[in-house]
Amino acid sequence: MLFALDAQYFIGTNLKKTQAKIEHNIEVYTPFGTVNESLEQTIKDSALELKIGTILNNTYRIYLSGVEYKTNLFKVKMINGNYEYLIPITNDFRLFSGVHMGTFKNNMVYGVQGGFIYDITKSIEFEAGGFYSRYKKEVKVKGEKFGFEFTDNIKIENSKSLFAGFNYKF
Predict the structure, then answer these.
(1) Among 89, 99, 100, 104, fewest CB within 10 Å belongs to which?
(2) Known Gene3D superfamilies for this protein (predicted)?
């Protein structure tokens, strides 16, 4: 038996406000030896996320998203694959729940998301919601500050994001 899929494509953008808990293990190389310092930090950043994907049978949404976060020590470019289940409430209002998995700097990120989508017109929709992400391994950043070379082994524990954005369906 063959089933037909109703596919509707979309592109979109979100403004994402993210807070991440990070552990640093910093080694600073000086003429007098190596200085080690460990610290925990909570970073906050806002970034523009771009996405492209498809809505299947008005029930599932599958898309790729990309976002870049910046701190004073490093930049993180993240690419995620997202899968969401859409729960219709009215003809123009839906809730969604889903999962994501992606990569950055040879690292893996995964997590869950949820929110709502409101159809402004037949082609334009507004959405808002939240993401919770976990990260698989440490990232090593090398650099120089105040004339000294350093290595920062960064472990991103988790991040929480709130977002709002618009999609164009075609």
Answers:
(1) 89
(2) 2.40.160.20
**CA angle in degrees (0–180, nearest 5) for 67-14-120:** 155
- Let me know if residue 1 belongs to a domain: no
pLDDT in tens, 109-144: 999 999 999 999 999 999 999 999 998 877 777 888
Cβ(109)–Cβ(103) below 8 Å: yes
Enter the pTM of the model: 0.80
Instruction: Give me the amino acid identity at 115.
Output: G
Looking at residue 132, the DSSP 8-state letter turns out to be E
Alpha carbons 137 and 116: distance in angstroms, whole number: 31
> Residue 29 is part of which domain span?
7-169
- Please choose, from the candidates 95, 100, 110, 115, the residue with its C-alpha nearest in 3D space to the C-alpha of residue 163: 115
Collapsed DSSP state (helix, strand, coil) of residue 28: strand
What's the rounded Cα separation, in Å, for the pair 119 and 58?
A: 12
CATH number of residue 32's parent domain: 2.40.160.20
Please name the residues in contact with 31: beta carbons below 8 A apart, sequence gap of 6 or more: none
C-alpha 55 chain-centroid distance? 20
Which of these, 74, 70, 64, lies nearest to 18 by C-alpha position?
70
Paired tokens of 86 = 């859409």
SS3 58: coil
